[in-house]
Amino acid sequence: MTRTSQKNPVRGAVVLITGGARGMGELYARRAVAAGARAVALWDIDEQRASALAADLGRSGVDVRAYAVDVSQPGSIRDGVARVREEVGAPDILINNAGIVRGAPFWEHDLMNDIEATIRVNTLAAMWLTREVLPQMIADPSRPKRILNIASAAGTLANPRMSVYAASKWAMIGWSESVRLELAAAGHRHIAVTTFCPSYVSTGMFAGARGPLLTPIMTPVQATAAAWRGMLRGTPMVLRPWTVKLAMALRGVLPTRTWDAIAGRVFRVYSSMDAFTGRVGD
């Protein structure tokens, strides 16, 4: 492993990004190109938008390709991985970024379009895809490998009108941290797993949501910068902003009813989704 690759695991790497056509996925792609990736695979259900971004980024000289992949379907994931391996090589860096949100009381959620779709895209897709690429990552210790899993602060703290989304991200965090520990215990230290837990990010996905007290809504640039730094360093968990850690600590030590009162009346966490509308078309 060269000194350069230790400092910059992206240089010369094949980077695969789910939900790569817009928002934070696009920003990760731009960072990968700027950091000297050999190839970038953009996975998105919106093939037209992904192709336009690939053409734009490809002018840099980096091999950027768009793939129409529905990550909610394991067959689509398997086919997508096979195509990436054949066309640009096995992924060295995986960014599990694709996600959806449905904001409503649990009893208003549709079984298929809301509950199952959220779990498939936010949780199972990352598991399915990582299972496809991880054995080859393990078998190739010649360069550092990275897995960046985009979770959410909602996975650290319950919140009304986010029951299914929160459940999907709680599962993502538990799975991601467990895989990290398993890899370390097995001696596969060339692979680092980072879990990113941001509060609200202004991508449009959470349109209408309000940041709790002392928790400003982050811009996509701020969020991706924090996640990217953590991924490069192999930081196990990145939580932003700092109030996410504070809320976790308070929730851990205070009685539940006391925390409910503080979260609801002081920090206004429990009302943050009251005006949620979400991105039009999602």
Question: Would you kindly provide a written description of the structure presented here, covering whatever features stand out?
Answer:
The structure is a single chain. The protein is of the alpha/beta class and 282 residues long. The protein has one domain (3-266): NAD(P)-binding Rossmann-like Domain (Rossmann fold, 3-Layer(aba) Sandwich), CATH 3.40.50. The chain is 46% helix and 14% strand. It has nine helices and seven strands. It has helices at 3-7, 23-34, 47-58, 74-87, 111-139, 163-185, 220-233, 243-253, 256-266; strands spanning 14-18, 39-44, 63-68, 93-96, 145-150, 191-198, 237-240. It has a seven-stranded parallel beta sheet, sandwiched between helices. Helix 7 (220-233) links the parallel strand 6 and strand 7. Helix 2 crosses helix 7 and helix 5 packs parallel to helix 6 (163-185). The longest helix is centred in the middle third of the chain and has 29 residues, at 111-139. The protein starts with a helix and ends in a 16-residue tail after the last helix.
